[in-house]
Description:
By secondary structure, this protein is of the alpha/beta class. It has helices at residues 42-59, 65-83, 86-97, 133-146, 154-163, 167-174, and strands at residues 2-5, 9-16, 23-26, 32-37, 103-107, 114-116, 121-125. The chain has a four-stranded mixed sheet. It has a three-stranded mixed sheet with strand order 5-7-6, with helices on one face. Helix 4 packs across helix 5. The structure holds zinc ion. Zinc ion (ZN) is lined by residues 142, 146, 152.
Amino acid sequence: xxxxxxxxxxxxxxxxxxxxxxxxxxxxxxxxxxxxxxxxxxxxxxxxxxxxxxxxxxxxxxxxxxxxxxxxxxxxxxxxxxxxxxxxxxxxxxxxxxxxxxxxxxxxxxxxxxxxxxxxxxxxxxxxxxxxxxxxxxxxxxxxxxxxxxxxxxxxxxxxxxxxxxxxxxxxxxxxxxxxx
Length: 181
Ligand SMILES: [Zn+2]
């Protein structure tokens, strides 16, 4: 359920049979989020919200409604760009260097640029579309190397270095960017 609130914009209401009281938090989009018991009506949720305004203002960094919308839009644009690019770039390097992975997944809520699971799924953060191409390629090559080494051992870095001679400086430069969208 989503409540439209004058002050906080869209408030996401999550109902759960396990929740007892009401808990407020911030979603990845900067929206106010409230967890409430499953039986809570919209009327009741609004009443909880009203009685908690002061505490929310004091304690939670709710983004204002126009920022929430701007972020949604930015995410949509990045996702579209990422979808048209990252899976193909990954496939390109996999073919070039003889890797086989199972799936490519695009993520956005993560604080990581990428990951590689033991099921051989490679996840890439859509925030990669905001960083310079050599850094983006480095992340892809890094995750591909994890298909052979599920750790950051010497052998792993040696393999990354075979495909990206500047991996050390790329790793360092990546720290100047934030994977969050
Ligand atoms: Zn790694």
